[in-house]
């Protein structure tokens, strides 16, 4: 019996050992932010490079966490290892729908998005059952935009759901351009432009066509914990995003220099992406209601909100 | 009966599993954990039953198992050929050795970016990864098994004037069967893991996709209970294959013949 108790207590120890975490000391000015790469996240990079958070909140301890997709950001927030992150509206709503205690703090960007196919396909109807469509993941904004277009064209939003292949933007581009069974790729800047510059490929649907208007591609999200327990840091975070956006608008040249360093891309290319007509950096959250209504109607969400304040913090601008 | 004896029985595995489930449920109920990270057993079972009744989980499981069976078949056949040739020809043996030392430590997932470029993202790509994970451990076990066959057995074959095919079937395979079964067990486990990882990356290659795709889908739609349900299915299949399939195979061959 004694042996048995020893074994059991070792098991309990092992089971609980994984729960230890890097706890942030209460009351201190700390923030843990998910860092992602891409033109759509440009203000985040500016914020980091220019030390805007440090400027707005002296003495703040920032930890930038590398994350490569929104599912990982959500999981890190559930595990209380992350306070703020940037993502598209649909994955945010999925997290909210499943009981995550978080809201949108700010809009961030709208960039060109679109479905690229080889030129033998001219519209959605010509995609056969054999065609495979690469998206970053199911439930991503690209997937929901595709479902919106399918709903409008065929009255069946899930029409192409069984033909999705989950590939990151660069892998998706390689798969499309190599001419294998991936014949379509729903992607965004700068992969979109690279694919369209390749002979034999064209865009059959843009994000705005699918959505039926403009929408925020990326928004900034924070946990309730950060918002409630650390209002000073929360305010500094929003202020820093605002200043980063203003900086990109006022000094695109300098912004391009910073970003081309961070992303290892040619400066002229970055500048072209930043100043493209369809690229807009703004703190206003656009398209929230439309995404939510559509995802509820088609079963990607189980609930919706009466009032947008259920999903955005009080100071956040939004329009629909 | 003493408690200790309980854990020496063949069914001790299930007692441990029951204990772990109790520990799980107590943690989920009593500890301050988020149900998004640590759902209770009821939630997981509800998700599992819902997926069985309303979803495709059984079909997806069959799809994955089917792919692995085909992959195992191809892998074992290739391994058999290479191992036999290695036993017959020392030159070929050095070639096989080189291949094993190059490819055996290479995880299939590391090859993924290349496989996407070579053969795309369909079932063929998953099959390729399964064959890769099955082939090398199988070769290692088979060559070890063939080498361990006592010389006198082979001489008996010569005495009976067996041709090559006969001596393979009647001498080589039965005499090295415990090695072959050990190889099969390792290959099955590797193939199963590789298939699930590949599915989680490639997605619905066969229309509804496999069990890896099921878990991935649950993850991106933040259905944590569903993720655990998928993992439970994988564990259940693993235990079934280990206990029932391989258990029966061993009982009817090497244990019966007394070579194990």
From TrEMBL, chain A:
UniProt keyword Cell division present: no
Keyword Protein transport: no
Keywords: Signal
N-terminal signal peptide: 1-20
UniProt name for this protein: Putative aliphatic sulfonates-binding protein
Organism: Acetobacterium wieringae
UniProtKB/TrEMBL annotation, chain B:
Top-level taxonomic group: Bacteria
Localization annotation: Cell membrane
Tagged with keyword DNA repair: no
Keywords recorded for this protein, A-Z: Cell membrane, Membrane, Transmembrane, Transmembrane helix, Transport
Ranges of residues in domain ABC transmembrane type-1: 57-246
GO biological process, one term: transmembrane transport
Topology class, membrane: Multi-pass membrane protein
Transmembrane feature ranges: 65-88, 164-184, 196-215, 227-246
InterPro entries: MetI-like, MetI-like_sf
Keyword Membrane (UniProt): yes
A cellular component annotation (GO) from this entry: plasma membrane
SUPFAM superfamilies: MetI-like
Family membership: Belongs to the binding-protein-dependent transport system permease family.
Official protein name in the record: Putative aliphatic sulfonates transport permease protein SsuC
Gene behind the chain: ssuC_3
């Amino acid at each position: 019996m004694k042996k048995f108790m020893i074994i059991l207590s070792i098991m309990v120890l092992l089971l609980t050992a994984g729960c230890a975490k890097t706890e942030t000391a209460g009351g201190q000015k700390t923030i843990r932010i998910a860092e992602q790469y891409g033109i759509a996240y440009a203000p985040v990079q500016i914020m980091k490079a220019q030390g805007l958070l440090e400027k707005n909140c002296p003495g703040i301890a920032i930890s930038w966490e590398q994350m490569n997709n929104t599912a990982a950001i959500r999981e890190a927030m559930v595990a209380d290892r992350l306070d703020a992150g940037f993502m598209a509206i649909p994955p945010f709503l999925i997290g909210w729908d499943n009981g995550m205690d978080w809201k949108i703090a700010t809009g961030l960007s709208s960039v060109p998005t679109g479905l690229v196919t080889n030129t033998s396909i001219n519209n959605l109807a010509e995609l056969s059952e054999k065609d495979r469509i690469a998206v970053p993941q199911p439930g991503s904004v690209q997937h929901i935009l595709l479902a919106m277009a399918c709903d409008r064209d065929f009255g069946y939003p899930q029409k192409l759901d069984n033909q999705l292949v989950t590939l990151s933007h660069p892998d998706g581009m390689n798969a499309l351009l190599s001419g294998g069974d991936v014949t379509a790729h729903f992607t965004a800047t700068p992969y979109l432009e690279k694919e369209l510059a390749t002979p034999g490929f064209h865009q059959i649907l843009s994000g705005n066509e699918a959505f039926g208007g403009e929408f925020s591609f990326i928004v900034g999200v924070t946990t309730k914990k950060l918002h409630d327990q650390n209002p000073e840091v929360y305010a500094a975070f929003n202020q820093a995003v605002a200043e980063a956006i203003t900086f990109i608008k006022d000094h695109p040249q300098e912004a391009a220099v910073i970003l081309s360093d961070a992303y290892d891309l040619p400066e002229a290319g970055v500048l072209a992406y930043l100043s493209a007509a369809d690229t807009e950096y703004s703190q206003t959250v656009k398209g929230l209601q439309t995404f939510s209504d559509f995802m509820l109607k088609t079963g990607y969400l189980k609930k919706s909100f009466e009032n947008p304040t259920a999903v955005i913090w009080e100071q956040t601008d939004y329009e629909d | 009966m003493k408690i200790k004896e309980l854990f020496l029985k063949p069914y001790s595995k299930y007692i441990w599993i029951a204990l772990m489930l109790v520990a799980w449920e107590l943690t989920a109920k009593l500890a301050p954990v988020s149900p998004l990270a640590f759902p209770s057993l009821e939630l997981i079972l509800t998700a599992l039953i819902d997926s069985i009744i309303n979803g495709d989980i059984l079909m997806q499981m069959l799809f994955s198992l089917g792919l692995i069976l085909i992959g195992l078949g191809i892998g074992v056949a290739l391994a058999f050929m290479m191992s036999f040739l290695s036993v017959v020809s020392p030159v070929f043996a050095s070639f096989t050795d080189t291949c094993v030392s190059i490819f055996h430590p290479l995880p299939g997932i590391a090859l993924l970016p290349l496989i996407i470029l070579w053969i795309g993202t369909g079932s063929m790509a998953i099959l390729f990864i399964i064959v890769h994970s099955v082939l090398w451990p199988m070769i290692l076990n088979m060559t070890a098994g063939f080498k361990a066959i006592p010389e006198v057995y082979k001489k008996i074959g010569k005495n009976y004037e067996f041709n090559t095919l006969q001596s393979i079937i009647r001498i080589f395979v039965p005499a090295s069967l415990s090695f072959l079964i050990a190889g099969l067990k390792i290959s099955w486990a590797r193939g199963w893991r590789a298939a699930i990882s590949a599915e989680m990356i490639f997605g619905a290659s066969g229309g509804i996709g496999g069990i890896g795709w099921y878990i991935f889908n649950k993850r991106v739609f933040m259905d944590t209970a569903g993720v655990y349900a998928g993992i439970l299915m994988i564990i259940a299949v693993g235990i079934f294959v280990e206990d029932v399939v391989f258990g029966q195979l061993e009982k009817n061959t090497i244990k019966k013949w007394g070579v194990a």
